[in-house]
Design brief:
The chain is of the alpha+beta class. Helices cover 26% and strands 33% of the residues. The chain contains four helices and seven strands, in the order βααββαβββαβ. The strands form two sheets. Strands 6-5-4-7 form a four-stranded antiparallel β-sheet. A three-stranded antiparallel β-sheet has the order 1-3-2. Strand 5 and strand 6 (94-101) form a beta hairpin. Helix 1 crosses helix 2 (17-25). The longest helix has 11 residues, at 43-53. The chain is elongated.
């Protein structure tokens, strides 16, 4: 079971250290101490709490699709040349960048302030771990 410091749990959950400590006091999270005597919580419990509390806008498209990774957001920037464009969306706390044809940007009417949905369907998703573990 991986333990993380309260400070790191707060960062992952987008709340203050004090909020995590209150959640520990009320029994929402269980805590322990690491070798140095610092407060720690179970990383899996933090991930499950983050999932339960995640609030993403509903997908307004009402379209069925096989891709499970859909992120609703607001277009924050569009950089286009004659052929290609880079479109940036802010989807909750996540910044998503897509490269597409300038023609597609025009057809979709994408501009800063537009609501859009990033649909991610990939056969390759890279996962990194901190600390240089291989």
């Amino acid at each position: 079971m991986t333990q993380i410091r309260i400070r790191d749990a707060a960062s992952f959950l987008g709340v203050s250290d004090d909020t995590v400590r209150r959640w520990i006091e009320t029994g929402l999270l269980e805590s322990g101490k690491d070798e140095a005597g610092r407060g720690v919580v179970d990383a899996l419990a933090v991930a499950e709490l983050a999932r339960r509390n995640a609030v993403l806008p509903a997908d307004p498209s009402e379209i069925g699709r096989s891709a499970r990774n859909r992120l609703v957001g607001v277009v924050t920037e569009v950089v286009s040349d004659t052929v290609m464009a880079q479109v940036e969306l802010q989807c909750g706390p996540h910044r998503i960048v897509s490269l597409m044809s300038s023609e597609a940007v025009r057809e979709l009417g994408l501009e800063p302030g537009s609501i859009a949905i990033a649909v991610v369907k990939a056969t390759t998703v890279m996962i990194e771990t901190p600390g240089g573990r291989a």
